[in-house]
Amino acid sequence: MILIADGGSTKTTWCLVDAQGTRAFFNTEGYNPEFISTAGIMASLRQNLPAALVTGDVAEVHYYGASVVSATQVATVADAMGAVFGQARVSVGHDLLAAARALLGRVPGFAAILGTGTNSCIYDGARITHNVDSLGYFLGDEGSGAFIGKRLLRDYLRGLLPADLAEAFRAAYGLDRDEILDRLYNQPFPNRFVASFAKFASDHGDTSYCRALIAEVFEAFFQNIITKYPDYQSQTFNCVGSVAYHFRDALAQAAATHGMAVGKIIRSPIDDLVSYHLATAR
After folding, report:
1. What's the confidence (pLDDT) of residue 2?
2. CA-based nearest residue to 152, from 227, 223, 207, 224
3. Helix or strand or coil: residue 7?
4. Domain 2-95+270-281, CATH homologous superfamily name and number
5. CA distances (Å), 212 to each of 199, 202, 237, 274, in order?
6. Which residues of the chain have pLDDT under 50?
7. What percent of the chain has pLDDT over 90?
8. Which is deepest, 13, 50, 70, 87, by most CB within 10 Å?
9. Residues in Cβ contact with 147 at an 8 Å cutoff, skipping those fewer than 6 apart
10. How far apart are the first and last CA of the chain?
């Protein structure tokens, strides 16, 4: 059996492929090695893997994850996978490579992620050749769920939301200033926390405030990241992620404004990523 994983900061989507090519999907939490240790990943997997999955029967694990870049980050994840799936050959890569393989296969082009965080690249059909650093949710991540959430929280706490939206926000979340700041500065996974508020912008996407917010967020994404790629207008814009999918019309408008034709926008890369690996195995 082959196990393939697309790991974001918030959620990991897994696909188990048996000898007959049957696909079985399940989810666990995200395993961003900036925020979780090898022991933490192991504990989560042992608690959340499907009871019917016999880990010793897994021959290959292909894991792609957020922030799996440096040798130390790769080792954090690979050591956990190796311990849990003791008989498997384990490969660990960046979720940006997963996005490129899912969106483009073996064809060169541009690929991006807009989910909890932001990332993007130029891909030559086999590897990533150029990446404009998103700088993470502290300094950048323009266009991401975290970027949207930070803007919403800032305006809510400063009293800048329209009155009806502010009331809807209070009703939806019931959080006061101290609770919000505690979650941001004292609790684990603050990136997931701020990104969770992107749903509010989607749920209220018919309001002028949220339409303007999303337009500004994607304008920042293009101005600060996409336009920094040489000759970017010659590329087709391809993107994966929950934010890209739910706000795809506004994203397509931003791409058109900056002279990029839109190619493929998908919510999750897992189906196409599995197809990529099965084709490689043949």
Report:
1. 92
2. 207
3. strand
4. ATPase, nucleotide binding domain (3.30.420.40)
5. 15, 12, 22, 37
6. none
7. 73
8. 13
9. 118, 137, 141, 217, 220, 221
10. 14
